[in-house]
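Record type: monomer structure entry
Structure origin: computed from sequence
Chain ID: A
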Amino acid sequence: MTSTEDRLDKTTILGMFAMGVAVLVVANDFTALSVALPAIDRAFNTTVNTSQWVINGYAMVFGVFIVTGGRLADMFGRRRIFFIGCAIFAFFSVLGGLAPNVWMLLACRFLMGIGGALMWPAILGLTFSLLPKSKAGLAGGLILGAAGFGNAVGPLLGGLLTDTIGWRWIFFINLPVAVAGVLVTYFVVPADSAQDDRKEIDYLGMAVLTIGLFSLLLALDLGTRVGWTKALVIGLFIMAGIALAKFAFVERRAGDRALVPDDVMRSRGFAAASLATLLMSAIFFAALLYLPQFMSNVLKFSAVGSGAGLLPMMGTFAVTSFIAGRLYARLGAKVSVTSGALFLAAGMFLLSRITSTTTYDELIPGMVVLGIGVGLFYSSVTTAAITSLDPARASLGGAIVYMFQIAGGSIGLGLNTAIVVGAPSLAEGIHWAFLVDAILAVVGAAIALLFIGGVLDRERLAAAWPHRHRAHA
């Protein structure tokens, strides 16, 4: 039975709505421009080798700065950092929409990535703080559900705007939505005090981590384009390894002011959730890249049609994310995260049966199963990771998990691309790449089963089934 203090009042619901809108804006920007690149190429007389950094640059900067954003949110107040992030994001969105050349557009996208990196962990921290602890799963479901919906409608919205009033409106539309989110948050979400009262910023840790992550993500991106044996790519990998090793040394010496405090590093459950996320993210990113390529190159779908073709996966992802919170409350972290991982594995096994004669209808079952896995896994693993830490670390914890998601996606894309490029045909390459992804998902499921959420609670699992619960009653 739900206690009175666990019931959600109107203020809490409005606050959650504001956080969902903010997530929608950030998530939409990851995918909305994917179908607008040809129009951007025509507008600035450039090629996809340059314009693709409109997407890659935003994602890379987002991934590099998100841990710093999470730490700042915990140190200086999540609502304050959320407002600063929104202001940066909205301002450079408008400036990007007005860009007279591709270089100004790219600069604006990079700076939008910084705004998003400040917003995302602050949103996570605020959402978890709005809800009672018993409804922590609802917070993860809300955030990932809104993100899934934003990712799903991004290509459709981007295609619609590009074909009607122009691609620049993909940027302009961010301003009114961001303003609405800020206003609702200002009037509804109470001002929070700093969760961590130590105001000393670990500048050295931030700098070393930024260099390490940027070098790693850039090496992974360039490796898929120019080859893994190029001197530049090898040099970037070496620089990344040195910087990340140096970061661990710097953090041990930083003590209480460390960017990633010792209690976060020592949390076994948090480490397991981060590792599982790293393995699983290869799957989601690979599906987002190669399923549209198969639809476009083999099934001869248009660009917008290929984006719409992902709806069975992205729609299921969004719906599952919204109900995953209730499942998490019933089943607990271990069962929820492990089940999500197994659905991911099953979905990739189904999709790995792809051949040059596969029809779109034959892809749908695999996409639906994969969408269930994505929605259940990511919302559950985010909740499991954040709740394994002290509440004062909520924004930082959420940021680190998302950093592992982006890093896993980049590593996974490199692995998948190497397999696909080396195959005699696109279909055969996707077959072997997706098969490897499915095996990675099984490994991730094993990690979740062994290390996330403590021991398996059989009584809680039995209580999840209403008829059994009533029988005991």
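Annotation 1: Residues 8-202 form a domain with the Growth Hormone; Chain: A; fold (CATH 1.20.1250.20).
Annotation 2: Confidence is low (pLDDT under 50) at residues 463-473.
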